[in-house]
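Give me structure tokens for this 181-residue protein.
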Amino acid sequence: MTDKGDALDKALAGLPKDVQPGRDLWPSVRSAIAAEAGVAGRGSAFAASAWRPQLAAAMLLALAASTTTYVLTRRSMQSELQAAAPIATAMPAAFNGESLGPEYVKSRAALDAEFERRFAALPPATRAKVASDLADLRRAANDIAAALAEHPSDPLLQELLMSTYRSELGLLTDVNAMTTR
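Here you go.
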């Protein structure tokens, strides 16, 4: 085997190191490469356009699967929450004058009468601001009471309504505490 390797090495060594071609081949090589790249470029554009409908279908399928999963999961969570929610047997909370007791009704009537007297003595600009604030508080109380009628056991709504009533009473008390001019 070493004889063959040595013979091959001698034969290779005997070959000329530089061989000049009979003509310049580079222009034809460049044109062949450019022609092949053009065919390959058209082929890849054709291949990409062939995949577009399939990619769009795959994206639509993934979107449909995600939407279906979301809807089904949400429905099952809502049904679980409804099944787990205790049945409310307590009386619905009502915060109108009657349910807060006769002392409240009496105190509120006295406060309202004093408020009307003091309110009439306020300057017009102050009276307009107080009337606007009072209307906002009463509108908020009505909105919260309506929401509370739909969700009577919601402690946040109950606290919001009581806080709104306290703010209204605070406004009435502040006006009553003002000195008349």
